[in-house]
Design goal:
With 242 residues, the chain is mostly helical. It has twelve helices and three strands; from the N terminus they run αααααααααβααββα. It is 57% helix and 4% strand. A three-stranded antiparallel β-sheet has the order 1-3-2. α4 crosses α6, α5 crosses α6 and α8 packs across α12. The chain is flat, with a radius of gyration of 21 Å. About 7% of the residues have low confidence. Its main location: nucleus.
Length: 242
């Protein structure tokens, strides 16, 4: 389970994938992960380069040992409807929103259910993009997503800054000061006026009040630690048009 071997410096994964590249090595590494875009999402360049050098990532296929009945149900539905090619296209679509293979299966299964329900009312049909789109909208239509879309401009920038800091540090927790640095970078890139420290603390408090963030109860000011109370995929989806 590759994502369980992740460390901040990623030495474990680097060494693991470096061994097969050594001269006269007869070692073959088979890695399993739920994340569909694992190299791009969490791996440093030096680790990803081991995969390329060893030709391990030329074809990526992630099999999730998760809810076997759901996988069987989804597989049968795909075969009966005759849309295996469509399924691959839908995987690329969902991968743009979420790197989790399990969520991809969830969406495809829900799209099949929507199609079957619609077919009961009229002539039978195969699963189409409209069904997948409806399933995606249904899955990503939580009150939190609506709150993010209705948030102020700097609140949305702050959430983007959190995602950027998480990717930089490799851990899903950060201080307000670390996020503030990322916030300033995003503002400069967009040519926007940078908020003051007081303004950024107010932004953090508002996001914490609506439970999008989990804010450490402390008087440390900029050293207060924050975490997300929703998935990173939900934030990415909510801000995809921004």
């Amino acid at each position: 389970q590759l994502d369980l071997l992740w460390t901040r410096k990623q030495n474990v994964m680097y060494n693991l994938f470096d061994w097969p590249t050594q001269k006269h090595s007869k070692l073959i590494i088979l890695a399993v992960a739920n994340t569909m875009d694992l190299p791009e999402r969490i791996m440093m360049n030096r680790v990803a380069s081991r995969l390329v050098k060893g030709c391990f990532w030329s074809i990526t296929l992630f099999l999730t040992i998760w809810d076997s009945s759901s996988i069987i149900y989804s597989s049968i539905a795909l075969l009966v409807c005759g849309w295996v090619v469509r399924f691959l296209l839908y995987c690329f679509l969902v991968a743009a929103l979420s790197g989790d293979a399990r969520r991809c299966l969830d969406i495809c299964r829900r799209a099949t259910e929507i199609c079957e329900f619609a077919s009961q009312k009229r002539t039978p049909e195969i699963v189409r993009m409209a069904h997948v789109t409806e399933a995606i909208d249904e899955m990503f239509s939580s009150p939190y997503i609506k709150a993010i879309r209705n948030a102020s401009f700097h609140e949305q920038i702050f959430l983007k800054a959190i995602l950027a800091e998480f990717r930089r540090a490799g851990v899903e927790e950060a201080t307000v000061q670390q996020v503030y640095r990322q916030h300033l970078v995003l503002c400069r890139v967009e040519g926007l006026q940078c908020p003051t420290v007081s303004e950024i603390m107010a932004v953090c408090s508002r996001l914490g009040a609506c439970r999008i963030l989990l804010v450490e109860p402390s008087s440390k000011y900029l050293q207060v630690r924050v975490r997300l109370n929703i998935s990173q995929d939900d934030i990415t989806y909510a801000l995809k048009d921004e």
